[in-house]
Specification:
Largest sheet: 7 strands, mixed
Helix content: 25-40%
Structural class: alpha/beta
Strand content: 15-25%
Distance between the termini: 36 Å
Strand order of the largest sheet: 7-6-8-9-10-14-15
Length: about 400
């Protein structure tokens, strides 16, 4: 199996932008490499690196090579701002893929990328707050807003015949956004929220919050938080205290770290929602085959499809623009992502480059689906229902 990171990406993480030559073009990759979602990151780095490798193996970017310049948000708002400032002001990247968490994506956008005029495309940030940002058409994402996921989660819960739940959600952009949407949709459809607790991150104990949640008498606890932080602790402490044994989570909790921490048997009655890819999508198979050929395994991990697609789209935008001028990126991104145009899929860089050179329009349809951005830089999408299956998660339904 090849190492998780290519030489170029590894050097970039160490500040090695000197590997870029005069004709090379840098692209920013902002990830939450350390912090609460660190366990998600290795296959996502591989996905971004694969996109860059395919570009360089098939003719390169513009007149040279694509060079991925990584920044680590550390999973915090200040870390996101610091990393974004380096990408914008030191590395002078024209476009950025990332970040992943909603809070770090928003922090980087508001403090750095919007003022600097840099397009940013997130593969995973879902906060509804992004929709109405005053972003000068610079902030995009390729997963649906939590306004959609919250509504779908309410439907999932009611479809299971569960008409009474307790709810806890983390006090950040991600948790508040999906938590409020879920509760509103669930109650409107006839469900009862017997207890609701908005909790803070990075605490050692959530036993007092759990005691409050358990008083309502619900058998099911909805947990909207990250498994690497408060979400995982809440599930574990719930089980240890005998307070809840049935959990309902969103994509932040659909983390294999949770299975490692509490065991698959403890999660056999739980289920989780997460943005997903279309069923029987040939483009997904193309990516997964290439990914596993390159890295040995991991193509099925959460958000691999979206991270690859977002990275490939940033590179297509630069090629379409014919320049690394920041001001040309937004229009170019919209052009390559949307109809009309000749279809281009994962790994088809040489085809895309030739079509663009001939002045033809292209329309990228990725492993995660097609991405037709609306006026706010949002897309429609699909939400999957997942259950624990051994040491990983298995999708059992798709909602749209």
């Amino acid at each position: 199996m090849k190492k998780c990171m290519t030489f170029v990406a590894a050097m970039a993480l160490l500040g090695g932008s000197a590997v870029a030559h005069a004709a090379d073009t840098k692209v920013g990759v902002l990830m939450d490499i350390t912090g609460p979602i660190a366990s998600f990151i290795p296959p996502l780095q591989n996905a971004a690196n694969l996109a860059v490798k395919q570009v360089n193996d098939q003719g390169g970017l513009l007149d040279g090579k694509a060079v991925a310049i990584y920044g680590d948000t550390t999973g915090s708002s200040q870390g996101a701002v610091d990393a974004a400032q380096k990408l914008a002001n030191v590395e002078n990247v024209p476009i950025v893929m990332g970040a992943l968490m909603s809070g770090t994506t928003i922090a980087a956008a508001e403090a750095v990328f919007i003022p600097s005029g840099i397009v940013q495309i997130s593969p995973t940030a879902t906060s509804p707050a992004m929709t109405d940002m005053k972003d000068n058409d610079l902030v995009y994402r390729i997963v649906p807003s939590d306004n959609f996921q919250g509504q779908v989660l309410a439907q999932m819960v009611l479809d299971e015949g569960i008409d009474k739940v307790a709810v806890t959600y983390v006090n950040n952009d991600y948790g508040v956004g999906i938590g409020q949407t879920f509760m509103d949709a669930y109650k409107k459809a006839g469900g009862e929220i017997v207890a609701e607790v908005k909790h803070e991150e990075k605490k050692n104990s959530y036993r007092s919050e759990l005691a409050t949640l358990a008083k309502g008498g619900a058998d099911q606890l909805v947990v909207i938080a990250y498994a690497g932080d408060s979400g995982g602790k809440i599930v574990k402490q719930s089980i240890e205290g005998g307070l809840f044994t049935n959990f309902i989570g969103t994509d932040g909790l659909r983390d294999e770290l949770l299975i490692k921490d509490v065991g698959a048997d403890a999660l056999k009655t739980s289920f989780f929602s997460s943005p997903t890819s279309p069923a029987d999508n040939p483009a997904q198979k193309t990516l997964h085959d290439a990914f596993n050929a390159e890295y040995g395994s991991g193509a099925d991990k959460a958000f691999v499809d979206q991270t690859y697609d977002a990275t490939f789209l940033t590179l297509l935008a630069i090629e379409k623009a014919g320049t690394a001028d920041r001001t040309a990126m937004a229009a170019a991104l919209r052009d390559v992502a949307s109809a009309p145009g000749e279809k281009v899929g994962p790994g088809e860089w040489a085809k895309a480059k030739a079509l663009l050179k001939d002045g033809k329009d292209i329309d990228y349809d990725g492993a995660g689906g097609s991405y037709d951005f609306d006026a706010n830089g949002d897309v429609s999408g699909l939400i999957g229902k997942f259950v624990v299956d051994g040491d990983t998660y298995k999708q059992i339904a798709i909602f749209q």
